[in-house]
Amino acid sequence: MSTMTLEVLRFSSGSDSTLGALFDTTNGRRFLAFTLEDEARDEKVAGETRIPAGTYDVRLRTEGGFHGRYVAKYGDFHKGMLHVQDVPGFEYILIHTGNNDEHTEGCLLVGDTSQQNVTKDGFIGSSGDAYKRIYPDIADHLVDGGEVQITYIDYDN
């Protein structure tokens, strides 16, 4: 089976958050959702730092607190958390719902709307709607034996 490729284009770094856009780049470039992560830091602070730019594998994580909450919330729709693998110095980096930097702890949040983070705290809205729209294609690709890779690009520096 083929590899699905995703790309996060980070376009705005604020004091507490990073805004970006998530694309499916498997066949061309298709916008999926806005993203929010923690801010960039020279020295990692646990739960307060975005992961380094680079390309990482994504797998399904079928254990842990997030997985249990998402099974309860989404039922059979949920096949496991989208888990970004082998990030140097980071563990359990997931793609999930949330609205601001307090919800991320290094993970990638997805949403359908985005508020600038230049004069305000970064915020993405309609996160659940975005997640329910993009999750099935990615999860089904993994369940069917395919690979998923995600590339984070710092366009904001």
In short:
This protein is an alpha+beta fold and 157 residues long.
Describe it for me?
Helices cover 17% and strands 38% of the residues. It has one domain. The strands form two sheets. It has an eight-stranded mixed barrel with strand order 1-2-3-7-6-5-4-10.
The radius of gyration over CA amounts to 14 Å
Overall helicity: 10-25%
- Average of the residue pLDDT scores: 94
The computed structural class is alpha+beta
| Main sheet summary | 8 strands, mixed, barrel
* Unreliable sequence segments: none
What is the count of structural domains? 1
Write the element-wise H/E pattern from the N-terminal end onward.
EEEEHEEEEEHE
The number of helices is 2
Q: Which percent range describes the beta-strand content?
A: 35-45%
Number of strands: 10
> What sort of overall outline do the alpha carbons produce when their principal axes are compared?
globular
As laid out across the biggest beta sheet, the strand order is: 1-2-3-7-6-5-4-10
Amino- and carboxy-terminal Cα gap: 36 Å
